[in-house]
């Protein structure tokens, strides 16, 4: 059932290109190249009514939600809040008939996410769920459902569910922009062409993973690993850090690189591994400035960046290049090396990769 892979996690990492293809198929009109969600069938009037979007989720799904915010705000200029469900539900959130609440959950059974969804319904919001499990509580109770077609995810550490959630947000953002007439047919076609290329670009990363493996093994004795990014790279840094903590049990933190000077720099020592993401061209120089700061304190820096950005090699100790795409879509590619790093680090430590200590696949207690 592991299809020749040693662990479910590795199998699921490698299933991502197919999972993305499946999630995309049926949601793209082959003739117009527009996004179509037959399962939503929202009218223009309905979409125009929402003046606020709230995304609620836990863990990795919350990290996908951060990218959902970036996509929906960028494409539709509608304000979006993202919050972990266990905080949202206890703080009297401002939600009403003009709010769209999106609950994101792989299992569709996470207790806090379900409670946040129920509360939003009571407050009169329209609710949408993005889930991977047909018939799950969250999928049944939301007004509308976008199913991610990742297939069953067995490993506790979520991988293909995350990338299909992120893709769903991109498609949703484009769909909403279409309904609000905020996207030109040309831009639409360009975005869709770029998204359709992603599965193949993922394959490229997956089949050249020997260096990533070596890197993962090289950090196994680290006391602490830091992930740095700016803009949407910060959201990906959070996900990379969670994945590493979860299965390698190494302490790790993710930081918006601009925050380094406000405390974190004190923790950087000789040899501290730093995984830095540089996928946002307009932020390259700022990131390189931050990399200089940590290198000056002896950190060992890996840069994950787009293939064209060779300049970065002068500033970092090691580089991991990924294929180029629109800056909004880079997380679908940049997260892959991070997933693989956590896998190989955990493996090198002899941990139970698929069933890390203290964690359950589906968290049905509050
Ligand atoms: C991390 C992980 C967890 C889940 C979280 C939410 O790899 O798997 O952080 O993402 O427990 O679970 P779902 O998406 O099922 O609501």
What would your notes on this structure say?
Helix content is 43%, strand content 16%. The protein is built from 13 helices and 10 strands. It has helices spanning 8-14, 16-24, 44-49, 59-76, 85-88, 111-122, 137-141, 160-179, 185-206, 210-218, 232-248, 284-295, 331-348, and strands spanning 52-57, 80-84, 99-105, 126-131, 144-147, 224-229, 251-256, 273-278, 300-306, 318-322. The strands form 2 sheets. Strands 2-1-3-4-5 form a 5-stranded parallel beta sheet, with helices on both faces. It starts with 7 loop residues before the first helix and ends in an 18-residue tail after the last helix. The chain binds fructose -6-phosphate. Fructose -6-phosphate (F6R) binds next to helix 4 and helix 11. Catalyzes the first step in hexosamine metabolism, converting fructose-6P into glucosamine-6P using glutamine as a nitrogen source. Homodimer. One of its GO terms (molecular function) is transaminase activity.
């Amino acid at each position: 059932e592991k299809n020749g892979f040693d662990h479910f996690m590795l199998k699921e990492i490698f299933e991502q290109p197919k999972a993305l293809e499946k999630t995309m198929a049926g949601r793209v009109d082959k003739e117009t190249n527009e996004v179509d969600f037959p399962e939503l069938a929202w009218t223009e009037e309905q979409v125009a009514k929402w003046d606020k979007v709230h995304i609620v989720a836990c863990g990795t799904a919350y990290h996908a939600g951060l990218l959902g915010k970036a996509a929906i705000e960028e494409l539709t200029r509608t304000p979006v809040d993202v919050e972990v469900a266990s905080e949202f539900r206890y703080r009297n959130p401002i939600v009403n008939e003009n709010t769209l609440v999106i609950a994101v959950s792989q299992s569709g059974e996470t207790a806090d996410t379900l409670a946040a969804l129920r509360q939003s319904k009571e407050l009169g919001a329209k609710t949408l769920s993005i889930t991977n499990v047909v018939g799950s509580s969250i999928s049944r109770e939301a007004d509308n459902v976008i199913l991610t077609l990742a297939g069953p995810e067995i490993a506790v550490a979520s991988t293909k569910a995350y990338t299909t959630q992120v893709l769903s947000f991109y498609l949703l953002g484009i769909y909403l922009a279409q309904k609000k007439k905020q996207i030109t047919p040309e831009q639409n076609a360009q975005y869709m062409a770029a998204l359709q290329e992603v599965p193949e670009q993922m394959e490229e990363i997956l089949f050249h993973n020997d260096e990533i493996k070596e890197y993962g093994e090289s950090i196994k004795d680290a006391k602490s690993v830091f992930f740095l990014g700016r803009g949407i790279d910060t959201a990906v840094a959070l996900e990379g850090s969670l994945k590493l903590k979860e299965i390698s049990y190494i302490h790790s933190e993710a930081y918006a690189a601009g925050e380094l000077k406000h405390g974190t720099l004190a923790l950087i020592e000789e040899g501290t591994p730093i995984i830095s993401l540089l996928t946002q061209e307009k932020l390259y120089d700022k990131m390189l400035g931050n990399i200089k700061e940590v290198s000056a304190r002896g950190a060992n820096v890996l840069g994950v960046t787009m293939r064209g950005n060779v300049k970065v090699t002068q500033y970092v100790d090691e580089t991991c290049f990924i294929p180029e795409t629109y800056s909004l879509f880079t997380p679908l590619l940049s997260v892959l090396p991070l997933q693989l790093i956590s896998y190989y680090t955990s493996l090198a430590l002899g941990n139970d990769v698929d069933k890390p200590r203290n964690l359950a696949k589906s968290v049905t207690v509050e």
